[in-house]
Prior knowledge:
The protein is α/β, with parallel strands linked by helices. 34% of the residues lie in helices and 18% in strands. The chain has helices spanning 15-18, 31-38, 48-51, 59-67, 71-79, 85-91, 113-134, 137-140, 159-170, 187-190, 199-211, 228-233, 264-272, 299-310, 331-339, 406-410, 441-444, 449-468, and strands at 149-155, 173-178, 215-217, 236-241, 247-248, 261-263, 291-295, 315-320, 343-346, 348-356, 359-373, 379-383, 389-392, 395-398, 402-403, 436-438. The strands form 4 sheets. A 5-stranded parallel sheet has the order 3-2-1-4-16. Strands 6-14-7-8-9 form a 5-stranded parallel sheet. Strands 10, 11, 12 and 13 form a 4-stranded antiparallel sheet that branches. Strand 1, helix 9 (159-170) and strand 2 form a beta-alpha-beta unit. The mean pLDDT is 94. Bound molecules: flavin-adenine dinucleotide (FAD) and iron/sulfur cluster (SF4). Flavin-adenine dinucleotide binds at residues 91-93, 155-161, 178-181, 186-187, 191-192, 221-223, 242-244, 246, 268, 299-300, 303, 330, 405, 407-408, 440-442, 446-450, 452.
Amino acid sequence: MALQREKTAMRNQTPEKRKKNFNEVPLGYNIDEAINEANRCLQCPTAPCVNGCPVEVPIPEFIKAIKENDIAKAIDIMKSKNNLPAICGRVCPQEEQCEQVCIMGKKNQPVAVGRLERYVGDQALAAIEKQADTTNQADQGTTTRINKKEKIAVVGAGPAGLTAAADLAKEGFQVTLFEALHDTGGVLRYGIPEFRLPKGIVDKEVEEIKKLGVDVQLNVIIGKTITIDELFAEDYKAVFIGTGAGLPKFLNIPGKNLNGVYSANEFLTRVNLMKAYKYPEYDTPVKIGKKVAVIGGGNVAMDSARTALRLGAEEVSIVYRRSEDELPARNEETEHAKEEGIVFRLLNNPVAFQGKNGRVNSMECLKMELGEKDKSGRPRPMAIEGSNWMLDVDSVIIAIGQNPNPLLTSSTSNLKTESWGGIIVDGSLSTSIPGVFAGGDTVTGAATVIKAMGAGKKAAKSIMEYLSN
Ligand code: FAD
Ligand code: SF4
């Protein structure tokens, strides 16, 4: 059989159609497409793809099971390492991880590990739904496990906290997961939009974690509602902090306080968590006007721009101070944004916002050129003197990064942090307080879902070792 050099294509909603709705853009593989793609895997004995994955999913094994059309086996293999496959298959930057080191990718396109993972994750959820339909209610009531080992508190229901909670509950610990917001998922819920990660998927994967016996307590802000010390007084034997990086960075330039200048955090939270995307079904609209500028070039910027388009903006620009080569967003997001007509104003940087009656109406930018590499390893953007130009805007969304949320750290004495707010941990993710562990964005700064999950897994192991001593 001739070698298929390119990944098996995934069907998408057309750009014309999708920019008018919030439905998911890629439609997923069917079984024939999944088997076709699985057949491209060389089953390399060294399997570098596994080392490229922060949670070490046994990639060749699950792909082999798909090849053999044994999807139940593929699900079991996947779940042995990854509790959130339908989510990771959708949002992981595979091109920088497993797919980057795939042997097939040396001369051809790599195996589409992410698309296959999504297929397996979706089949797992479909199988659970089917089982629920055929099981009577009385039986279902007994599916949540009762765990007996020590009490452990997990703070934050994002990917780090959910993963730590699941791994600890699987080992029989009594896990309580405390979440400040009124819903679980962290950025998966309030940040990543519906058209990239449907909330129904997050709901279902979180439901599976609850069935492991994890007790989820919503609307509890650790550090305010109850402190870490009080958790220990309530007989919790260890604490994992996975509170993420929810504190937006702002541009310190004239006009930053004008109405219509949003942080991406506020904008996306209002659209996703407060359901502005479902207006008028939900009475929580976000008014953005016709011309929107998004400052930044990462996933958060792409999500904000594509969301603004779907809310009805006529011209949405990405304003980024470096060039296309340095755009930090996942390739797929950038491609999708371009297809949808987002305007890329690269090598530009805003220097002031102007407004009328307190509301922003234009933005002054400077053109940039690239210099030597800076500490981040990327070329330093340098302003071209006298290159100022004006862009008319009705709204501006700032997506230039986030730092860890200081709510918990500022109210917990003896918890050591970096100057930028990250919690300091050692190699086992233990903090400066005995019995308190931390991981995910609150330690690393804004990173990725799978890295946060990897940290959750590592912390769960360390907590078990700590308790066994
Ligand atoms: P979070 O997901 O931030 O979860 C932390 C949770 O802790 C939150 O629910 C928060 O409410 C809760 N919390 C905070 N303080 C307290 C407290 N004191 N008490 C109780 N609870 C508290 N990564 C990818 O891999 N791929 C992508 O495509 C991608 N897109 C992104 C798009 C956007 C818009 C954003 C913002 C991020 C994106 N990321 C992406 C990054 C990724 O989502 C994060 O790296 C990941 O969610 C971090 O997980 P976490 O569990 O550490 O923190
Ligand atoms: Fe398959 Fe690529 Fe992993 Fe080799 S490196 S086993 S081809 S996914």
